[in-house]
From TrEMBL:
GO terms for biological process: protein ubiquitination. It is found in: Membrane. It comes from Diabrotica virgifera virgifera. Keywords: Membrane, Metal-binding, Transferase, Transmembrane, Transmembrane helix, Ubl conjugation pathway, Zinc, Zinc-finger. It is a multi-pass membrane protein. The keyword Cell inner membrane does not apply. InterPro entries: Znf_RING-CH (IPR011016), Znf_RING/FYVE/PHD (IPR013083). One of its GO terms (molecular function) is zinc ion binding. This is E3 ubiquitin-protein ligase MARCH3-like.
Amino acid sequence: MSPEFTKNPLKIENLQVENNPTVHNETQLIENVINQKSTNNAASSLCRICHTNTANECLISPCNCKGTQAHIHLSCLERWLNQSSRNYCELCMFRYSAIETKRYKLWQSFKMWIRHPLNRAHVCSDLLIGVLLTMATSGLIMCIVKGYEYFVMEGTRLGVQKKWIISAIVAFLITVITVFVITMFVLLRDIILTWYKWWTSTVNIQLILPPSLDRTLTGKTDILNI
């Protein structure tokens, strides 16, 4: 053995560890476990929405979610709830205490709703059906009114009493008008209900925080339960 290694036992020990595969594998395994735990600990304190932990806002645990899904920034949570128009956690179904206000006024909401291509196509198709149905119904009624005398004359010639002919014409007119009104009502109701459902579900949500939690709290390592 060289004098250099004799004078420095630490080098001898390091050389033995490097030349021993078993010791090397165990050391690598321990390092991997330590790195994995460090990664898990870091991930457990990240916001589940933005996946960060900035020093500008503390993390909170507002629902029943556990593990890495438990922590979230208040601003991220409110932004997500407003975008999804819901007041509960989509994972654990916990319902938050929140104030809901309509995002748009009545007429403004309809203008915003109809800007969407699908909604605009829906309204246009229903309007087209309504126009065609109105034209067909109007033409049919005009034909019956104009041909009233002809129908009465032909019915009398065939031996049908005039009162029965008039009753049949009136019943037919009532049926046509009733079908027209019901169809138009269904078309209009479909549009109004679709828009109204969207309007009532499009709300601004602001969480109601307990007095112990201030919206201005900061701290990168703060994790608060509410």
